[in-house]
Amino acid sequence: MTRVEVATPHGPARVEVHSAAEGRAVLLLGHGAGGGIAAPDLVAVTRAATEAGVHVALVEQPYRVAGRRAPAPARQLDAAWLAVAENLGDGWFAELPMLFGGRSSGARVACRTAEGGQASAVLCLAFPVHPPGRPEKSRQGELDSVEVPALVVQGDRDTFGQPESAHRREIVLVSGDHSLKSDTDAIFRAVGEWLGRLLRLLD
């Protein structure tokens, strides 16, 4: 594991790189709005990805690096994310397929930037379909904008709602709420299986 800082338009981001023995792709993973890269679901996905032959880059947004807990506006999150993706794609992981992913707010960033960042696939953990109790504030459109293969792993008791399945988008429900802490083994299995199928498509 290696930690590096990457300059972005909104301050430095911090990236924790976990290398696979035989890297066939790289997965960028973003954290939730108030949490960090040590969230249990992100740890499980990192393990699943590296075992599947995918490098992982856990991306800590500039507002977290600066010590702020309140998230930056969406446009700043997206710009910082794309700056990190470009840096890693040009340097560390040149010519490897790049996958975007994250939990909650990080999943939204991955969806919004997938096209601009030329992501080959998107992985969403605990995608916040709407604020709790506010289904009229739907963010389903962010998921629907993703035109590459996507996997959404969602807790079956997530008060942020349940995403709709669609062509090229798989939904896997696991036991738990929005934190996805209850069954990290199920997350590990779901992500590992999906990545195995995805890598065969990308080869």
UniProtKB/TrEMBL annotation:
Q: Which InterPro entries match?
A: AB_hydrolase_fold, KANL3/Tex30_Abhydrolase, NSL3/Tex30
Q: State the source organism's domain of life.
A: Bacteria
| Domain annotation KANL3/Tex30 alpha/beta hydrolase-like: ranges | 24-182
Question: PANTHER family from the entry?
Answer: TESTIS DEVELOPMENT PROTEIN PRTD (PTHR13136), TESTIS-EXPRESSED PROTEIN 30 (PTHR13136:SF11)
Protein name listed in UniProt = KANL3/Tex30 alpha/beta hydrolase-like domain-containing protein
- This chain's source organism reads Halopolyspora algeriensis
